[in-house]
Amino acid sequence: MALGGGFALLGGAPQLVHGASRTENPAISARGPIRLSSNENPLGPSERVRRALSERMDLGCRYPYSYMGPLVSAIAAREEVPESCVVLTGGSTEGLKAAGLVYGLNNGEIIAADPTFQALLRYAELFGAYVHRVPLDDKLVHDLDAMERRVTSKTRLIFLCNPNNPSGTILDGNTLRDFCTSVDSRAVVFSDEAYFDYITEPDYPSMVELVREGRNVIVSRTFSKVYGLAGFRIGYLVARPDIASRLREALMAHTGTPALIAAEAALGDDDFYKESLKQNEMAKKSIYATLEDLGLPAVKSHTNFVFFKSGMDIRTLQSRMESEGVLIGRPFPPLYDWARISTGRMEEVAAFGNALKKVIG
């Protein structure tokens, strides 16, 4: 059913549980404010990960370098690339910043959508980079034509966040691939795929396939989202071996031994992976139902959050929602009348619905 603004919501949403405000639901109030602000997966870490950590906690006294091999091998097998293409990072953020450093030094020029995830861009700017920020189109999708027009002989990196944060939109798969193969001879393309696991479009391509072809493409992935390991800080980059080597040398902190153990266990936990996706879809449908009741336009999301037009300055909405015990996403200029709400447990999403209806309704 359309909500206006050209966007449509998924149907079949489950009913919200009413009366689950912070003061009325002890299970929620005991945990303090409900965190629907950082796109975390509240279900993790899984029981399999917990067991692995418990059994190998004695390795917590060891530096991680001797224990990276099994995880690198597992990722390489999963992505169908040589191990030399895999760079382990502290979350995907460390990989993003490493790329920002490598390609932003000495007045490097970077092209990116706006708004999008800023970690790479802001870090690059600290080292003298110039970032060309290209507005999203009217459907809040990367405007690839406009981005390509910005490419010059000085361009070193083109940053794509796909699915995009904060809009939750994805690029057409064929268009994305054509764009990457068109511009990668002039600049490196960085494809941030932190939310790739949540895409439900059939046969949607990861740009890892271009890495396999030897293209000038870098892909970042993370264990912070669907695997529920945000607090462990573990992610990875996939790139051609020569590019991977440059990025590896630019890492600042690396990750820790417990994170390696957790990620290795998580990769083999198919049941938890599927349950995370199932719970995420249920939570999104409840969020859509609330927004539909309030007549608020929302973008169809391919992530674990929903971006919607609240019609209220986000800073005001943030404050009012926090007073109701619910934390929502930060401002994403210039879209100050839009809000990003992360999925959570069903009782948390229900509490969000009640709070939003009180604040806006």
Automatic annotation (TrEMBL):
Q: Which InterPro entries match?
A: Aminotransferase_I/II_large (IPR004839), HistidinolP_aminotransfase (IPR050106), PyrdxlP-dep_Trfase (IPR015424), PyrdxlP-dep_Trfase_major (IPR015421), PyrdxlP-dep_Trfase_small (IPR015422)
Q: Which UniProt keywords apply?
A: Aminotransferase, Pyridoxal phosphate, Transferase
GO terms assigned for molecular function: pyridoxal phosphate binding; transaminase activity
Q: Is this entry keyworded Transferase?
A: yes
* Domain Aminotransferase class I/classII large per the UniProt entry, residue ranges: 34-349
Q: Known CDD domains for this protein? A: AAT_like (cd00609)
Family membership: Belongs to the class-II pyridoxal-phosphate-dependent aminotransferase family. Histidinol-phosphate aminotransferase subfamily.
Q: What is this protein called?
A: Histidinol-phosphate aminotransferase
